[in-house]
Design goal:
With 151 residues, the chain is of the alpha/beta class. 29% of the residues lie in helices and 16% in strands. It is a single-pass membrane protein; Single-pass type II membrane protein.
Length: 151
């Protein structure tokens, strides 16, 4: 058997006179870009919706009680203050355990406007981990009118 040389000649494309040209836009790249954007949004949504779940008390009868109120303050630098005295982060769980033994006590937390949210969330997680259910937030009055500037 002998090998035969073949030459390939490009075939000239000539549409038939009766056949119209195909002029539709290729939307495949557009769909690919939209799918990539959709996947990126799906991946970033859990980051945006980070929250610390807290069971807040429901409105009830407004009877004044003689409850002992303890206050935790978060300074602009991130330090903790328990009833006016500075405490270390390691001492907070012990204080919260003592608070839980008190029958009619309430805990209030106040954060300075310049305090970092991350530090506030960490403190709130420690409070929640201790099982505190009688918790109030102090200092949020400045956010009652959202148009008012922060002080």
């Amino acid at each position: 058997m002998t090998a035969r040389a073949t030459t390939f000649r490009p075939r000239q494309f000539r549409p038939a006179q009766d056949e119209p040209l195909f002029t539709a836009m290729n939307i495949t790249p557009l769909i690919d870009v939209l799918l990539v954007l959709l996947v990126m949004m799906i991946l970033t949504i859990p980051i945006v919706t980070h929250e610390v779940p807290v069971d807040l008390p429901q409105p009830g009868p407004s009877g004044r009680s003689s409850a002992t109120i303890h206050r935790i303050a978060l300074t602009p630098g991130g330090a903790l203050v328990w009833d006016g005295a500075a405490i270390a982060d390691a001492a907070l769980p012990a204080r919260l355990a003592g608070f839980m033994k008190e029958e009619d006590a309430q805990l209030q937390i106040e954060a300075a406007p310049q305090a970092r949210y991350e530090r506030f969330a960490q403190t709130l997680a420690v409070i929640r981990g201790a099982g505190v259910t009688r918790l109030g937030f102090v200092g949020n009055e400045r956010f009652a009118d959202f148009a008012a500037p922060l002080r």
